Amino acid sequence: MHYVLYMKKVATSKKRLPLIPIKIPELEDQSMRRREVTSIVTLTRHVVSNLLLYLVIGFCSLPLVAFADTESKPTLSDLTTYLAEIDTLYSEILQVNSDGSKSEGRLLLDRPLRARVDYFPPNKGIIIARSGTVAVFDTGSNTGPSHYPLKHTPFYHLLVKDLDLTDSDTVLNHLIGRDYNELHLKVKSEQVGGHLELVFQNDPLILVGWVFVDDLGNRTMVKLHNTRTNLKIDPKFFNIEHQKKVLGQP
Question: What is the model's pTM?
Answer without folding.
Answer: 0.72
